[in-house]
Amino acid sequence: MKKNIVILTGAGISAESGISTFRDANGLWKNHRMEDVASPIAWDNDMDLVLEFYNIRRKQLFKVKPNKGHKALVNLEKYFNTQIITQNVDDLHERAGSSKILHLHGELKKVRSTTNSQLIYKMDQWELKRGDLCEQGSQLRPHIVWFGEAVPELGKAIEIMQQAEILVIIGTSLVVYPAASLMDYVKPETPVFYMDPQAERLSHKTNIVCIAQKAAEGLPKLVEELINKYGE
What we know:
Elements: E1 4-9, H1 11-15, H2 24-27, E2 28-29, E3 32-33, H3 40-45, H4 47-61, H5 68-74, E4 81-86, H6 92-96, E5 101-103, E6 106-113, E7 120-122, E8 140-144, H7 154-162, E9 166-170, E10 192-195, E11 208-211, H8 215-230
Parallel strand pairs: 1-4, 1-9, 4-5, 9-10, 10-11
Antiparallel strand pairs: 2-3, 6-7, 6-8
Helix pairs in contact: 5-8
């Protein structure tokens, strides 16, 4: 029987495809704090600034491609019940070919109604403008979990973690909560592999294999090792 392998990915894996991370340039964007362009208060105070910020990010996303790290993860599906939980709002896992992805923080290529969160639409273009309305007549906003908002998929992510028989963490600093707390929900005996250039930060934990490499460099080899050791 195939084992349940869970992959938790962060900004690091997407940065290798050329996507700017939230915390580039010390967390600033045009001299604004992230909270000034990615929060409900920011939306209320300056909708046009928020729209511009996400339009720039979305335009960039249409230009980049999955890297070797994204593509390596697809091979796991032949040998494991594979579930990806990502903190990233891009669609690079999907475009690489992975089939089960849970987006904790929303999706950049989707927008939703400001008054009915169930009205969600795919974006086939990069620009969302003031005056773009949902079918009920309300302004559309990025389908993103902003600072200060609840994480709707958190409960589902916890359930997935509790079923994990192998956990692989890639390209995340593990300092952004609640995502950083997810690893605490795996069973104590679950093998954990942490791949990040700064992976040594968890080297004091005896149950974690730390791999100080970038995803595109290290994941093809790690995937091969996981298949050889645990695959069905």
